[in-house]
Amino acid sequence: MSGSGWMSRARARHTGVVGVSLAALVALTIAPPALAASDAGSSGSASGSLASGSGGASSDGGSVSAGSTIPGPLQNEHPPLPALRDDITTASIVGEERKSDQFVRFTVASPALRRDVGVEVLLPKDNSVPRPSIYALEGVDAREDTSGWVTIGGAPQFFADKNVNVVMIDGGVSGMYTDWDRIDPGVGLHKWETFITEELPPLLDTRLKTNGVKSLLGASMGAQGAMMLAHRHPEMYRGIATFSGCYSTTDDLGRISVQATVSSRGGDPANIWGQVGGPGWAAHDSLRNAEALRGKDIYVSVASGLAGRYETPGMADYSDRVLVGGSIEAAANACTHRMQSRLEDLGIPATFDFEPRGTHAWAYWVDQLPKAWPTLARSLGLA
To answer: What is this structure's pTM?
Structure first.
């Protein structure tokens, strides 16, 4: 899933609506008909999605027309691409800014990303002994200067009394928190999987004196990225909590979601994992690779897409929240039901929360933090 309505990114941050811009509405017109007919209530639907796919067989027997992505005039603004460097040979912490007693921002030089990356960390309430870590990933508009978890996601307030390091990575617009095959002219160089799983952990484990235990938290695009990291690196993560994501990449539903996320900010889906629907895409499909999630503590939530307590007629962004945020959340609902069915088929325990009302917006994910915490705490040995 993606992150911010057809409004500008700044306005999206202010209001808390997260989406793929007008791309979402375009996507819904070309998505499988089942989505339009899906039940918008808490039981949701198991089909339908967000943007278009191209090529490759669909695991659910459907098809997506080749080459269809979000047209340029309908894309959100394209943020400036970070400058790349060729002089970074070793991952290292090159800067540290203490923002408060429990909040620090590191600057990390990354050979994989060929640039410096901001990493914000919320520190444990009691740091007298080594503590575990949560890596928190966000949506498509991931900013270079700060994380949405800090500005609007409620993380500093919620985790203030928790004994855990919360790691929030800045940047990565449309990047899916994965390693792309090629540098993209529209959205740049993405080697986030390498950064998150190889370069960053040893640096932070040493600097923060952690106990090495890690779990994942993600919303929207970050939910899919977190689930992918969990199934691709099962030895690294004990648990996972995801909100409003899509977890397949090779059926119509998943390909549509990935292509919407990538192309909504000017990226070319052909640059991410090779041929659409091919082996590279299959390797990142959490439904196909769900067996790797066995033994983890798992919490997954989504709402229905119907206007909820944070949408009031007359508010300035009401249409954005209901039309854009509601449509995207309905698609996420369909994705989440597929994930639930897959884990049930495999006999893998997980907690699923299908909220009867709510759109694709930060306000609802803030509400999910206390619901997800028992699962995360158990995975981290804090329960």
So the answer is: 0.86
